Amino acid sequence: MTTALVKVIVSQQQSLQMEAFLQELSLASKHLIEFREMYDFENRVKTFKNWPFMGNCKCTPENMAKAGFIHCPNENEPDVAKCFFCLIELEGWEPNDDPWLEHAKRPSNCGFLSLTKNFDDLTVEEYYLLEMDRLRTFLCKTGRSTIWSFEKEVAATRKRLLDHFISKHQYTPEPELPVPHHAASPDQAPESPNIHKCKPQHSNESKS
Q1: What is the band of 174 on the pLDDT scale with cuts at 50, 70, 90?
Q2: CATH says 14-197 is which class?
Q3: pTM for the full model?
């Protein structure tokens, strides 16, 4: 492989990485705006269109919405629910799970969950402070996730190029630079963009 061809491949990889990075930022911006409408109880309830627990149970759409959750299903996990405020995700629900209790036992310090009055009774100043808290939480969590994903892809591209040179030219790579502390391990990063993922006790993960 010529040097010119390597430069082309690197340039293409960088373009793909940047495109993926910008797509994540775009999606995060979209959610940041959309979730502002989820202060409204009815808007949260409307997200539970295909929720598997509709009656004769504790985790009905209404109870889920009261606890701040919105329904965010995917192909493999149809019962994923996310708090619109602190962004914590829970899945693996069972009929007797209490949404409020499941939310409260997670270390999310959710500002919405700690409200001492109904949202409609908040003063303008109280709402402003609450919204600023939501924005800080959102930007912090989505920022960490997006940066980690970008750095992970950059590292993978570098490894592919090194593997090629090692096999073709018996190239000896330089020692690896220290990994940034926030990207040191996938276990320390969200499993999906902008989200801390955890499951209720009844699921495959045990509660503690």
Answers
A1: low
A2: mainly alpha
A3: 0.62
